[in-house]
Amino acid sequence: MRSPVQPPRWAHWLLTWLHPDNTLEEVEGDLHELYTHWYNSSGKTQATLRYLLNVVSVLPPFVRRRKTNKQQPEYRTTSSLNSIMIRNYLKIAFRNLKRQKISTSINIVGLAIGLATCILIMLYVQDELSYDRYNEKADRIFRVALRLRLNGKDVGGPVLGANAGRDLQQEFPEVLKTTRIRNQGSEFVNYGTTSFKQDNLLAADSAFFEVFSIPFLKGDPKRALTEPNTLVLTEGTARKYFGNQDPIGKVLLFGSDKTPYRITGVVRNVPENSHFRFDMLTSLAGYDEQHIGWTYSMNFYTYVLLPEKYDYKKFEAKISRLAEKQIGGELQQFLQLSPKQFREKGDDFGIFLQPLTSIHLYSPFGGTELRPGGNILYVYVFAAIAVFMLLIACVNFMNLSTATAVRRSREVGIRKVLGSVKAQLQQQFLIESVLLAMVALLVGLLVVGLALPFFNQLTGKTLTISLLINPFVLAGLVAGTVLVGLLAGSYPAFYLSAFKPVAVLKGGGTAGRRSFSLRNGLVVFQFFITISMIIATVTADRQLRYMRAQKVGFDREQVLVIHDTHMLRNNESVFRNQIIQSPQVITGSISGQVPVGNTNLDNTAVMSKENPDKGVMSRFYYVDDAYIPTLGMQVVLGRNFSKSFPTDSFAVILNETAVRALGWQQDPIGRELIGHIDDNGAKTYYRVIGVVSDFHFESLRQKIGPLVMFLGRNSGNILVKTHTDKLPQFLASLKRQWESFSPAAPFSYSFLDDRFAQVYVSEQKIEQVLTLFSSLTIFIACLGLFGLATYTAEQRTKEIGVRKVLGASVGSVVALLSKDFLKLILIALLLATPIAWWGMDQWLNEFAYKVTIDWWIFALAGLLAIGIALLTVSFQSIKAALTDPVKSLRSQ
Amino acid sequence: MRRTYLGEFEEVVLLMVAILDGEGYGVTVSQALEEHTGRTVTFGTVHNTLIRLEEKGFVQSELGGATAERGGRRKRLFRITALGSQALQEIQQLRQNLWQLLPPHTFRLSGI
């Protein structure tokens, strides 16, 4: 029944909201009564005002709080977190873990693997993000890169002509320093009687060491590279050439013409996480380019050092104006096109700055970088995998902890009866799960230590565990693990400790289906990840197989490539003629071009005679008459070059793509094209004598482009087609013959099919990484499923017992238990299919020649997931189904 | 002798609780205060004082039955404890003793 007069509702609401709960009822009632009294004596307005005033008087901070436990003031509750209790918790925890060996080890292994993966990936990501940050001025160093769109193709890159750096320093006072780096590739270096093929040669300006922070061990950084023909060694290289001797002032002889270089300094080895690497750094001083400018001979990586806290975008805008003038002028001279006309054609040019620290992960110029870069996408993918793995591992840990804890409901009951309070039980469970998590962390760290060499091999990095020694990282790991332990333990702790002892001890149902939907969601999530990983792995594997099996258009079996034959100088052809006499050799060809991998050759324009304005960007190959037969290429029209036709020096062989690009519908044989225009505009015509079928001369990531083959001398390698089963002897004989010319270079060789496989190393790595991670996810997901199956089987022991008594067969019980999981996996499959399809489609877009994503991959992934899941679940469900019902029902 | 201090307002409220004899709760106490002393105080003051008296052990309380006129909410009824009545009696006794010591001419001088 409601009283006829009601106090204002909002004031009342204020009271209920702010007044302490334990005195709310009586205060509400008192004020209500007073309000009625005032209402009757002084009217509504007065009553409302006084009510409000009095409400305020009982709100915090004016109100005094009633203490709840004043009933037993003389009884002091002792904290259950004292040292005796903790010792007891630990003792019980150890006993429990020891008693349930299998579930304990499953739990530890699962979490340990999750943690280990996460730590490994963390190391990897940290390394990727640390690139070039060792430089003290890292945030002030920028690289000047060229944006150039020519004939609709992006041909820009991180390199500029020789003068860009100098011009920038002269024009803009804010450029504190500039330095250029030129990639010198590899060269034969002689010291005394020893000769090495020296890789990782760079050349740089003397300001190099003022821009980049690479400390000197010997020599003067200010003067080290100021003179021509001087060089700086790294520590490692110095040891390789000179042992413990002092290298300063010593002279190394470079190349076949033995150019002397004087050593002026020794620096520390370039850090691994640097976007360039050198073993020797030669001086650029006195280096003359024939054409100077910004876009001629673009061989120079140009870096500028800006003042502190300087907005580089502003500087970029400033130098863009200079670049417009400079590059525009060069284009005018080069192409007879004004910048405006050039842009109207749909082409474009300009320069931009790349912050040093973003070069490794964000630079778009893959092949032209000083070292192969990383990819921010992979960093994200890896980080996501790490997070997922950890999440899945934690979820499993939680599920398994819960599942094992449920077995202990009787223990909880007894403890409660004996006087244990809720808090003690909670602490018991939390301490157990934190203990388990810490053990898992230790095991995880051990796994990281063991797996690191393999992981390094896989990722091509040199990660060390030393990063983990950092106290902050360690503290973070421990804190994270404790958190995982607390979270995982919280569910059993709060759930089990809330059991009513009577209910538990009576043997009543403890089956809490309360959180079942949450756990179902977690299973779906796990299998979603698992299925996506399986799909990704299978697709990557198929793509890789496809590329390996792809008809490349030439025969790469039994082809031996002898390297650096130009070091034989004039004896190169003598050597070739000598070795093709051998009965084990079919043919041999001298050529610099090996149609595998990035050749870094420029595209050059050729025009058909009929249509001289339309240039077709083509690759040029200079080959001899043995090239096509050695590589087993198909001549589809016309003929190969031949010594019997002296006019062949003005003949070309095209590939099919080039024929199409030049627009020759009918027989192209005998037609002419413009292959060369000299500085005076005089054109050289070449006659087409043959067409070879298209072959892949780079990787399958690119489409086959137009290719023009000229007859010409192009030394560098000798390709030898052999047929032999006595390879070691054959190679030994080749080596003897090579050494008879006493060349400056050692004999070295490779097989074409090996080199072909090398091209796909990065794809292979991705596949390996995917396989690894998907097996790990499957493994962890199975652990989770196993735990869950154990849990449900345990929960339904009685049900199964009753069913069996009533005549259910083992099969039907197994089906009953497995059905629930199957549904979840099907949902996961439905979710994973579109997302995995989209992801793989994105990845495959990188390849010009790719496999299609077929439906059967998804079916396979689904079947695989279901199969694995059934196997895992059946272990538990069959066990449950085979249990004698007498056992499970006797306690009733 | 350590004695629990009893403030003037506390003393009056305690007396009211004693007078009301088991019927004392927030409303009756504040109305009685207003009626007998003419002091208008906010409800919060009375509420806080009652809680404080209870903490000091001078009164004890229990929740009484619900009545319709307060929207069905229960009252917290206060009753004086032995300690409370002893404290009141001690104060009374003390005052008595002090009055005895008062020289008889004091009030006469002040004109009463």
UniProtKB/TrEMBL annotation, chain A:
Domain ABC3 transporter permease C-terminal: 384-497, 772-881
Record's bilayer topology term: Multi-pass membrane protein
Localisation: Cell membrane
The keyword Cell membrane belongs to this UniProt entry's keyword annotation: yes
Chief location bin: membrane
Annotated TM spans: 105-125, 377-400, 429-452, 472-496, 517-538, 772-793, 821-840, 855-875
InterPro entries: ABC3_permease_C, MacB_PCD, Macrolide_Exporter_MacB, Permease_put_prefix
Domain of life: Bacteria
Recorded GO MF terms: transmembrane transporter activity
Record's protein name: Putative ABC transport system permease protein
Source species of the chain: Chitinophaga rupis
UniProt lineage: Bacteria, Pseudomonadati, Bacteroidota, Chitinophagia, Chitinophagales
Automatic annotation (TrEMBL), chain B:
Matching Gene3D superfamilies: Winged helix-like DNA-binding domain superfamily/Winged helix DNA-binding domain (1.10.10.10)
Domain Transcription regulator PadR N-terminal: residue ranges: 19-90
Name listed for the protein in its UniProt record: Transcriptional regulator, PadR family
